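Escalation from tier 1.

The customer reports that the assembly of four entities below gives different structure tokens on two consecutive runs. Tier 1 could not reproduce it. I'm attaching the input and our single run for tier 2 to review.
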Amino acid sequence: MVDRISDGEHAVMDVLWDEAPLTAAEVAERIDPARGWSDRTVKTMLARLLAKGALAHEEDGRRYLYRPLVARADYAARESRKLIDRLFGGRAAPLVAHLAEQDQLSPQDIAEIEALLKALKP
Amino acid sequence: MVDRISDGEHAVMDVLWDEAPLTAAEVAERIDPARGWSDRTVKTMLARLLAKGALAHEEDGRRYLYRPLVARADYAARESRKLIDRLFGGRAAPLVAHLAEQDQLSPQDIAEIEALLKALKP
DNA sequence: TCCCTCCGATTACAGATGTAGTCTTATATG
DNA sequence: CATATAAGACTACATCTGTAATCGGAGGGA
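Tier 1 run:
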């Protein structure tokens, strides 16, 4: 049911992934001010996310409390897979290789990833 | 100038990243048949990619030869960075951690990445 | 020479997206 | 009690995308 979360919708999900449930007004307060959104825009995003099943809402007096229905990790997994499929032939290693070539890995990143991989090995 | 390459446009870029220059008809032949596109659709994509500066074309008699202006690696870098910024707080290590947790790394991936990282270290 | 065909250019049109504005209704306040 | 507000519901509208169809001109065959 949750087809695709657009970039704008993602900003709303981000807020609710950090803290939920929240009212529409509370979500609007927490949206990255850099977007310069009016609260109407936030309400539109909430309505669209509800319609596509990414959020649930429960009544709280005469307003709603919104809560995510998709987990951030699930969404991240889907998006990562799409990127890897589209750009790296479906395999993760070329993505890491790519990041490495582009110097997008700090020494700290490298250390962390090595530790991770070590832990993964049988 | 190359703002965003949509999913459909990406299918066309993929063909031209593999082989260029090509005529519109040649691109159409090479598009993944799974898309079921008419050649009109391919022409539309070519026109849009031209307009947004992702392709160049040169005349060849009464038709054009198209070639990419953005490199696949550059595009991959931009898209990877966007994903990492949006979903992983701008750091690559959590992405790899995430792939690991989701069992999206095969033993071969792990071996390859380890070798890569080893080579990166001073 | 005249028409058919193949190409690019232009136009179409519905659904998604960004970005709100207006309508309706149920409280809260004077 | 009457009315101003504030929430959600519905509507708006331009742009981007997917997916073509149509128009107009240049070459090639009859």
